[in-house]
Design a protein that fits this description.
single chain, about 220 residues, alpha/beta, seven-stranded parallel beta sheet
Length: about 220
């Protein structure tokens, strides 16, 4: 059985890891069980951070439900051109625990050309942040144009860097007509519920869940 997979990509420092840390508790509250794969070039620091926060501090998911992969090469290669290493991990996960509801795959930080192979991800979220200015959407790039959901993070920084959020929304609508854009602040959690709703409606719509307490009693 293929477990639904969502890929999250974006430049270094845009907030991919923090978005996952915010999303997983929201999904868990709704009864969805998640597994996380975090890709990076030479380290597994992001995976270790998520274990510390989601497993040790918040006790949302077990530590062994978060795996770090050091790709050792171009950040997007392991999620686009040759996703073999990620597919191998997923194959093992699906054999061990087919009852999982979602696998979240975090790409290593890269530029606006990041995309996910359709063999790896069923739903693609691309995240940018306003710290780089409001030019991001109109500069286009495969990630921005083709993702299922564009997330603009760190909206609280807009006044400090002179970014026009209205212009970003307008430009995003022009380069990706008809596709959703969410403005969030992962630090405070603003907009995260909406991102979770996009995942549920766009990918998990056929996997109805019951509250965790009821599910445990029934089992």
């Amino acid at each position: 059985m293929r477990i639904p997979r969502v890929g999250i990509g974006g430049p270094v420092g845009c907030g991919k890891t923090r978005l996952i840390e915010r999303l997983v508790p929201v999904l868990a509250q709704r009864g969805y069980r998640c597994f996380i794969i975090s890709n990076d070039v030479v380290s597994k620091e992001d995976a270790e951070r998520m274990r510390r926060i989601l497993s040790v501090e918040e006790r949302i998911i077990p530590e062994d439900m978060i795996v770090g992969i050091a790709t050792g090469g171009c950040p997007h290669t392991a999620v686009r051109e040759d996703p073999t290493i990620n597919l191998a991990v997923i194959d093992e996960i699906e054999r061990k625990d087919p009852s999982l509801d979602l696998i979240i795959i975090e790409s290593g930080g890269d530029n606006t050309m990041t995309t996910f192979s359709p063999a790896l991800a069923d739903y693609f979220i691309y995240i940018i942040d306003v710290a780089g200015g409001d030019k991001y959407p109109r500069k286009r790039g495969l990630g921005i144009e083709t993702c299922d959901l564009l997330v603009v993070n760190k909206v609280d920084l807009a006044p400090h860097v002179g970014a026009d959020l209205a212009a970003m929304k307008r430009d995003a609508g022009r380069v990706r007509p008809g596709k959703p854009v969410e403005f969030v602040n992962c630090k405070t959690g603003r907009g995260v519920e909406s991102v979770a709703r996009h995942i549920i409606d766009g990918l998990l719509f056929d996997r109805k869940r019951v509250p965790v307490q009821k599910r445990r009693k029934r089992n």
